[in-house]
Amino acid sequence: MNAPTYNFAYLDEQTKRMIRRAILKAIAIPGYQVPFASREMPMPYGWGTGGVQVTAAILGPKDVLKVIDQGSDDTTNAISIRKFFAKTAGVETTTSTDAATVIQTRHRIPEAPLRAGQVLVYQVPIPEPLRFLEPRETETRRMHALAEYGLMHVKLYEDIARFGHIATSYAYPVKVNARYVMDPSPTPKFDNPKMDNCPALQLFGAGREKRIYAIPPYTSVVSLDFEDHPFTRYKFDAPCALCGAEDSYLDEIVTDNKGSRMFVCSDTDYCEGRQAAGHRGTESVAPHKEAAHG
Amino acid sequence: MVEVTGPSDQPLLVADGLTKSYGRLAACRDVSFALYPGEVLAIVGESGSGKSTLLQMLSAQLAPSGGRVSYRMRDGVLRDLAQLGEAERRFLFRTDWGYVHQDPAQGLRMAVSAGANVGERLMAVGWNNYGRIRQTASSWLERVEIDIARIDDAPRTYSGGMRQRLQIARNLVTEPRLVFMDEPTGGLDVSVQARLLDLMRSLVNELGLAAIVVTHDLAVARLLSHRVMVMKEGRVIETGLTDQVLDDPREPYTQLLVSSILPP
Question: I want to staple B104 with a disulfide (CB 3.0 to 4.6 A). Which of A122, A192, A239, B163 is the partner?
């Protein structure tokens, strides 16, 4: 095979150095968006070019990489990014949260608790939490600099006025280290509490918007709310149909053309792990057989 | 009719030799005055006479080429605005000051509800209780005569007069001591203007606000202000009590201005 030979992890060393500098600055100022010279990557914007550049910059030969997309290890985006690094860096890949040292994610934080030494890399589409309220970049930067975050509450106020509760269910704004308000990328707000005081390092890369930001290990991350409308985690009223978990984030899966549906863990690794440990849900008796629905 | 009320022996805002020039063009030349608490000052003059430039300098949005503006902070200390840090200046702007734009779209967030527009300043100073914010917002809407049922509608669905009243409510919610108004009745029809002026006059009296109103409409000056400054080509050519200036103008230009209004 005459495959082209890449530098380790695709990017050249100078580019990785530039990205690492941005990452170091981001870690030094938790929640602050550091501009960086984002490169063209061999994938379209919106598919994780920011996350891939961050991963490429921090990956070492001994790292074990896991990539998830909406919690799942086996969707197109996750598989192709995993293959990309298997090919360009030759690193070991895994689907196990526990075995991974670097986890690149789109939308979800794994259900299994992260530990010190792991790095969680988020793919971020729009890093600016104030963007849809204040279109001027010069103004949002000034607002961050002066910590003028009243506008963020205007958004939450609008939610309550319109829906009776804070209806923002993903990209829910958080305050990092009691200073910067940050958009946690489109993770469901279910995952927000996991960011708080997390032992793992969390890095956020936005390729199109050319920004990197970070939450260092053991940093306080507080979801914004009102005294009389406190932050609540999304609650599901059913357990996972495959593993019976009651504390995980569920995906709704339509199973036929008659509107039948089942709810299963979005984190496939977590769900498989529980099933292997003997946990069962309502539909897990014969997972490969088409279940008969009413 | 004019009487300055309250303990107003110390000026709230002092302008001293304010000048703004763009190259050889002097937009504003050597303007000095003092504004006392509870006093309403109208700045009148034709387009291009430097009224708006002056207002922008007074509200610290534009740095003067010469001279300075001092403001008495809530702690009673008179401070030079140019010496304030940006954070302090912006804080002043959204707490102790109000700024009513001629075009409400500039002063409002057109896409968020009226309630949030009024509540924004409260949230910016750290109010964190939805119920209280909403209650305060609705009492202000009531005060500016906007139907409470429309509290959740965005101002883009409002009429021109309602937008202007909403803008006033949004500015007054933090109980500022000084409000800047740039042609507040511009672009409104006469009956709506009259209602708005009436409202502004009662609010100013009730709250003991000091205000600086820029207008080319002498009727607005007559109704709202205690004192008038007439500007022409960047200079103040005449200043005095409103009735005195408008009924017995001294300068030929002011006489021309006054005589150009149709008699009622």
Answer: B163
* pLDDT (average), residues A241-269: 90
Residue of A nearest to B132 (CA): A228
State how far the Cα of A186 lies from the Cα of A171, in Å rounded to an integer.
4
Determine the distance in angstroms separating the CA of B112 from the nearest CA of chain A, rounded to an integer. Answer: 7
**Of the candidates A150, A161, A226, which has its C-beta nearest B124's C-beta?**
A150
Contact yes or no for A150 and B125 at CB 8 A: yes
CA dist., res. B239 & res. B32, Å (int): 11
Confidence of residue A287 (pLDDT cuts 50, 70, 90): very low
* Under 8 Å between Cβ of A44 and A81: no
What pLDDT does B196 receive?
A: 86
Known catalytic residues of A are 31, 240, 243, 265, 271
Comparing CB atoms, the residue among A146, A154, A226 nearest residue B112 is A154
What pLDDT is recorded for position B5? 47
Q: Residue A90 pLDDT > 70, yes or no?
A: yes
SS3 state of residue B227? strand
Of A15, A26, A17, the C-alpha closest to A49 is A15
Enumerate the residues of chain B whose CB falls inside 8 A of the CB of residue A133.
Answer: 109, 112
**In sequence order, what are the residues at sequence separation of 6 or more whose Cβ sits closer than 8 angstroms to the Cβ of residue B173?**
B118, B119, B121, B122, B136, B137, B140
Q: Write b or e for each residue in B85-123: b if 16 or more Cβ atoms lie within 10 A of its Cβ, otherwise e.
A: eeeebbbbbbbbbbbbbbebeebbbeebbbbbbbbbbbb
Q: What is the mean pLDDT of each run of 10 residues along chain B (264 residues)?
A: 55 94 90 93 90 92 92 90 89 91 90 93 91 94 91 92 92 92 86 86 89 90 92 92 92 88 65
Find the largest Cα–Cα distance for chain A.
Answer: 64
Alpha helices in chain B (DSSP H): 51-58, 86-95, 104-107, 114-124, 130-143, 160-172, 190-207, 218-224, 242-247, 252-259
